[in-house]
């Protein structure tokens, strides 16, 4: 299991600047933030996405199962995907068309738990479920994706941020791969014994370009092989990083 340590409240000034580069892409924290109005076509796309998610949750439920509850003295930090950075979609020559899609990625779900007591820091563990795709313009059968995790003093400033590399291999004949990345020992210092986890927020997102962030922010849901059924990878194709 990979170990992640996020420490040092005093380093906030050093960390906040690079994180702002992600936040400035729109700041939308969910599907309703910063986007334009939705028409009938968008509603149909959303319905198709909801059906796909329901099917995936049924078939891959074990991969996204909640972590075992840990004892703590208060609520855990709020954990979520930054909407602008929740998907990674490459387009050849910056043209948004099915024939131009390269590698893709999406954060499908996050399971998290925490533990703290007395004046001890908050210890958080997380499982992040990713879905990766290989479009017609993808070069080769492997891709190293980059994502980040940031701890914030909720609704105020970034305390710490760390980047991760995630190598992904696509088996022959498969254009979809699911992977769970497990992280432990995320440590958040507390100012006093009365400081609860509710004062903090943990954000997760891909390292995206401004163009990718704009694509996400306006709520576009373009997919590889749109409108055609996609074979679900066999259970043996699921990769779990430990």
Write the layout of secondary structure elements.
Layout: E1 2-3, H1 12-23, H2 40-59, E2 78-81, E3 87-91, E4 101-115, E5 122-134, E6 142-153, E7 157-169, E8 176-188, E9 200-206, H3 210-217, E10 239-241
Parallel strand pairs: 1-8, 2-9, 8-10
Antiparallel strand pairs: 3-4, 4-5, 5-8, 6-7, 6-9
Detailed description of the structure:
The chain is of the alpha/beta class and 242 residues long. The chain has one domain (2-241). It has three helices and ten strands; from the N terminus they run E-H-H-E-E-E-E-E-E-E-E-H-E. Strands 1, 3, 4, 5, 8 and 10 form a six-stranded mixed beta sheet that branches.
- How much strand content do the residues show? 35-45%
Q: What count of helical segments does DSSP give?
A: 3
Query: If you average the pLDDT, what whole number results?
Result: 73
Helix content: 10-25%
Give the termini distance in whole angstroms: 4 Å
> Total strand count, please?
10
Count up the domains.
1
Q: What is the element string, with H for helices and E for strands?
A: EHHEEEEEEEEHE
| Molecular shape | elongated
Structural class: alpha/beta
**Radius of gyration, in angstroms, nearest whole number:** 19 Å
Give start-end ranges of low-pLDDT stretches.
3-38, 59-66, 224-238
Sheet with the most strands, sense and barrel status: 6 strands, mixed
């Amino acid at each position: 299991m990979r170990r992640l340590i996020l420490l040092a409240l005093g380093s906030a000034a050093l960390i906040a600047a690079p994180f702002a580069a992600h936040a400035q892409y729109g700041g939308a924290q969910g599907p309703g933030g910063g986007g334009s109005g939705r028409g009938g076509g968008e509603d149909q796309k959303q319905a198709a996405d909801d059906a796909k998610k329901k099917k995936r949750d049924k078939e891959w439920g074990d991969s996204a199962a909640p972590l075992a509850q840990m004892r703590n003295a208060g609520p855990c930090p709020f954990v979520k995907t930054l909407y602008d950075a929740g998907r990674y979609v490459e387009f050849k020559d910056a043209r948004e068309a099915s024939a131009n899609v390269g590698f893709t990625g999406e954060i499908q779900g996050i399971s998290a738990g925490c533990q703290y007591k007395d004046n001890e820091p908050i210890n958080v563990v997380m499982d992040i479920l990713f879905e990766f795709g290989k479009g017609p313009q993808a070069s080769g059968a492997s891709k190293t994706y980059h994502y980040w995790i940031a701890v914030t003093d909720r609704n105020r400033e970034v305390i710490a941020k760390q980047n991760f590399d995630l190598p992904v291999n696509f088996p022959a004949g498969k254009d979809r791969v699911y992977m769970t990345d497990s992280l432990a020992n995320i440590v958040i210092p507390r100012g006093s014994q009365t400081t609860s986890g509710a004062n903090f927020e943990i954000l997760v997102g891909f390292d995206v370009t401004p163009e990718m962030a704009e694509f996400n922010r306006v709520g576009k849901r373009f997919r590889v092989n749109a409108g055609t059924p996609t074979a679900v990878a066999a259970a043996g194709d699921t990769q779990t990083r430990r």
